[in-house]
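Quick illustration, no need to memorize.
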Amino acid sequence: MSRGRFITFEGGEGGGKTTQIARLKAALEARGIVVLHTREPGGTEGAEEIRHLLVTGDPGRWDPVTEALLNFAGRRDHVERKIHPALTAGTWVLCDRFADSTRAYQGYGHGMDDDDIESLYRVAVGNLVPDLTLILDLPVEQGLHRAVHQRGGSEDRYERMDKDFHQRLRDGFLDIARRDPKRCTIIDASLEMDAVTKAIFKAVRDRLDLDLS
């Protein structure tokens, strides 16, 4: 049995990742591919408990290093209990956020040293790297406006951080894509929903040699 593919969706707040993951999942399943849709922070019972610590409460609840440690603790459990077994079984994994979010949020956004983040990655994740990372990019104000109307509930800790933080976040994701162009594709998430889906399907075709049209 061949290994499954690992596709991650990244970007700032309000980029429409949930909708686009659902559309890609449906298109892959229509072609007989077994797909797992998961998310970070979260994805397993233990990691979901850590998620609650990260996405609720006061914006200043944690310092950057503590945030990164919490993220990687959840990620370790997620990778070992869910992602690795799925990929080994031939399942395609679509993940709403992965380690690039730690690089962007705690690194570019909050100023944590990139070498320290990469050290945590090696310990917690090892050699696992996404086959394709789709970065859904849009202007900060547009993304925050969408997020306020989409999210609801108490998981708004990051949305309540200041605009400068979110601009650093956006710039960070774009820099991640620039530094790793073979893995990352930038998707213009400010476009109409169907146009975004079309761009994602094109990226899957071009990068993973799978035509979804």
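Strands lie at 6-10, 35-39, 92-96, 132-137, 184-188.
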